[in-house]
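== Item description ==
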Amino acid sequence: MRLQGVALALAGSLCVMAQAARADTQVFKRAGVWEAFGGTTNNGRLVCGVSSHGTGKYFGLKYFAGQRTLTIQLGSSDWRIKNGSNQQVMMQIDADAPWQAIATGMHFSDGDAGLEFTIRRKQVDKFMAEFRDGNQMVVRFPGADVSDWRANLDGSDVVSDSFLACLRAMGSAGETE
């Protein structure tokens, strides 16, 4: 019952924010170094996400309305990356098999460089289970002169619940690939 109330509240706030048609996100829940958020992007598109930032680094897991993938965004104030450039990324949670991708270079609205890759819809449940149950995530950048990133996943279960409630409120829970 409580989760339904949260989903309805999120749905209402997402509808109001969508009408504003400008970047406007709200943090729904914080736990550990993680936060769950939702709202609209700069172009008015609905978004739900989970993120962590600190020491000049950013990790974001985002679902954009209408997409059939989850988007992972990594950023660092120290990086120098060309938009559209490719970089291999390996992300591993505890002893689970690593997630491997070719990420694309991009820049955030604040000018910081970032990398972006997607997780297909049919893999979302597996990724979210690992993320919410994990203790530590390590991100590696093979072939680049960049140190591994390590993230404590304490609180990832709590923010995952809020992220999934945001997705349900957005109406994406029933989408499949």
